[in-house]
Structure formats: structure tokens, C-alpha cells
């Protein structure tokens, strides 16, 4: 029983612990969800109502935020709010969580903002060297960032430091870029301030073309927003002092006379203007009207124009002392500039960046080389494997090619034999068809002759009858497709092929019966029986080559020549066959 009680108690404790963990986890999630919502609200109010954004952030207890990302976002937004409410901080207590997290893990916008506000804190501390380093690190993310306002603010902050060390060209360049960015996000007030800074730089560089261009753009902006005129109007006097004539200076001074109050900084330009037109007393009066506690009184411009004005008033001793004061201050400024590394900060940053890029490039080369070696090794092994496989395959292919080549040669030989046999049969069929045609004509003639001429001698009648029987049998075979009718003809053909003399004699006797006039003509010209036999072969349709092959005699061409001579055949008659057949037809 005691044992069961302990188990029950243990189960209750486990359930209580699990419930506590769920409650704590839920509470933590809800708390962070609330913090994120407040941060979203503060960020949305930041540009339009920075004081409200700061109030919301002040109500968030930063000590209770344990999530690094949330703490970093809170730190960055708090630093932005302080800067926008013109509360200058000189320590990193607020911004440090953002620096620790965003520099390594942030997106381009977050890195840009972190570096910018880090630089602003360095500026507030008077550490322009570190400030410039932070700004240059931030510039690395301008291409990827979408926060145009912070980009422009960073360029203006850089330009401020560059102005203090007389890097006027860089000062002008950064302000021009900033002005373009401010115009892109429709911030004409910030744009005018940047253009005013460019005008300052153009006056220092004595660049009238740049001053004219910027002044034209600034005046165009003022037309659309008259409240901005108070920013750009003082620069009209500076422009006239630098590039204008005496009449322009006088006109602008008349405008300032009409004003009830004049800024101490503007008084310096007015004093210089009176000096330029030669009005020594008014120049001295305006200069001395600047209070001692004013920033304008301790400015370098005040010290620069004071010796000239005192000299114009005839106070040479005062002018000398004023010039000595100016020289002391300017030397101190120069010493301050050259005692810091600020002049070389950009070069140092570029060198560090170059070293990092070189190291990254070197690492890439090493990895690329290793990858190439590994790939080459794999390729080499694969090539060797393919080579050995290829050798074996080549041997098999060579053997197969030899076998196929032998088969092809055998097939080609069989094909050639078949083609020769087919051609031979085709030629024999053609010749046989020609002989049949000739013999059919001969049969018809012999039939007519047998009917009309009963007085023929018995040998001729026997020849005619025999040839008619053969020809009739051949035709019966062609009509009935029965080879039995052709047996006498086939025997006769064999006889013809074996007994050429008998065939040629019978052919001559047949022609003598069927074409007597033709045969008489040949006999009248002195042709012998053998020569007439020779011509009868041409008469039945054979050609010269076939006649020569049939009679198989070396005297074939001699016989042909002698016959041509006896018949007076024209030398241009190259073929004796057509001539004989025309001649025979002419006697029908």
C-alpha cells in the first residue's frame, strides 16, 4: 500500500513539472511575440514619428530579452531612435548586441545600418578614424541593400569627415550621390542640404561650372517647396563673392539689409561681401557684431577674413595679430589631421579588403586545384579503364569485322554471280525474243510462199515445211504455255547451235524462197553461198558482234569487208545489218 502511494505521488510530481514547463514555454513565446509586435510598431513609426518610436522602445525592458536576434533588433532600433531624436551617444551600451549579432549574421540592410550607427557613435566620441572605418565597411553593402535613406545618410556622414581633412573632391562626390538618393525617396529637405554642401565644395575648388549646375537644380527644387529657400539663399551671396561682380554683391547685400535678423554664419559672408566692395567700416561692424560665444566667432572662416578686414580699416597691428591667430589655428588643424591615420583610412581599408580578397582568391585557387587534381585522377582512372576495355572491345570488333567482311564478300560474290546469271538470261531472252520475232515473220512469209508457189523444188519445199513445223510448234508453246509443243523447236535450236553450217544453209534456202529478188540481187553481185549465209544472219536481226560470236571465225571482219566491197556499200554505212534489212525490204 505504501509502495502504491509513492507511485501515485511520483506521477503527480511529473504532471506538475510538465505543466510548469508548458506554462513557462507558452509565457516565453507570448512574451517574445509581444516584444516583436512592439518592435514592428516602433519601426513603422521611426521615420515619421521618431519620438513615439523611442517612447515605445523605452517601455520594452531590454534586460529580459534573451533571444539574440530580438535583442539585436531592439538594440539597432533603439540606436536609430536616439539618433533621429538628436540624442548623441558616445558609448556602445545600446548598440553592442546589434554589432555582435548583425555583423556576422545580418542581412545587407541590417549590416549597413549597424555599421552606420556604429560610425555615428564614433563621430560623437570624436574618433573620426574609427568612424570612417565603420562607414567604409557599411559602403560594402550598399549594392545589396534596399535601405536608401541609410545609404544616403552614410554618404553624408563620410563627406563630413572628408571636409574636415580637406578631401574636397570626395566630399563633393559623396554629397552628390546622397542628393540623388534623397531625391529617389522624395526627401527634398535632405536633398537641398546635400546640394548646399556641394556648393560649398565647388566654392573651395573654384569650380564655377559645378556651382552653376547645382545652383540651377537647387533653385528648381525651391520653386516646388518655398520653405527650402532659407537653406539655399545664403549661398547666393557666397556664389556672388566667388564668381560674381560688384553689382551682384551689392544687390544681395541690399536684400540682407531688409532682413530683421541674420544668422551669425551668414554675417561672415556679409562681412566678406562688404570687404569685397571696399566698405571697410561696414565689414568691420558686421564682423565685430558676432558674439564671442558663437561658433561662428571661433570658426576658421572668421579667423581667415579678420586680418583682411582689419588691414582694410588701417589697423595693421590688429591685422598682424589676427593673421598670427589664424596661422596658429590652421597649423594646429593641420597637425591634428596629420597626427591621425584618417588621411590613410580609405587606403588602409582598401588594402585590408584587397588582402581579404587575395586570401579568398588564394583559398579558391587551392580548393580549385585540389578539385582539379581529384577530377583529373578520376578521369585518368576512367580513361585507363576505358582504354583497357576499348582494347578488348577493339579486338572483338576486329574479329567481328573480319567475319562480317568475309560474309559481305561472300554475299557480294553470290550477288555478282546472280546478277551475271540474270543478265545472261536477260540477254538470252532478248535474243530469243528477237529470233522468235524474225522467225514468226519468216513463218508468215513461208506460208504465203507455200500457198502461191507450188512449182518450188522438193528440197526447198522440205526446208520450208520443216521450218514452218518448228515455228508453229514454238507459237503453240507461247499460246498454251505448254513446253511439249516447243520440244521440236528446242531440239532444232540445239542443232542450230551445234551445226552452224546446216542452220545457215537452211536460213539461206528459206530466204531464197521467201525473198527471191533479194537473193538474186546478192548473187548478181558475186557473193558466194557462205557470204550470203553470212548476210542472212544480219537479215534475221543479228548484230555484227552477235554474228561474229555465232560464226566463231577470225575472218569475220575480212568477210564483212569483202561483202561491203562487192555490194558497193557506202563507207559511211557503219552497220551492215540495217543496210541489209533495208535492202531486203526494198525487194518485197
Describe the structure.
The protein has 588 residues and is an all-alpha fold. Among the domains are: 1-146, Serine Threonine Protein Phosphatase 5, Tetratricopeptide repeat (Alpha Horseshoe); 423-586, no CATH class. The protein has helices at residues 2-45, 50-58, 68-84, 96-105, 108-125, 128-139, 148-164, 168-184, 188-204, 208-224, 229-232, 234-243, 246-257, 264-276, 280-288, 300-312, 316-338, 345-452, 458-480, 487-498, 500-514, 516-524, 529-539, 544-551, 556-567, 576-586. Helix 1 runs antiparallel to helix 2 (50-58), helix 4 (96-105) packs antiparallel against helix 5 and helix 12 (234-243) packs antiparallel against helix 13 (246-257). The longest helix is centred in the C-terminal third of the chain and has 108 residues, at 345-452. It starts with a helix and ends with a helix.
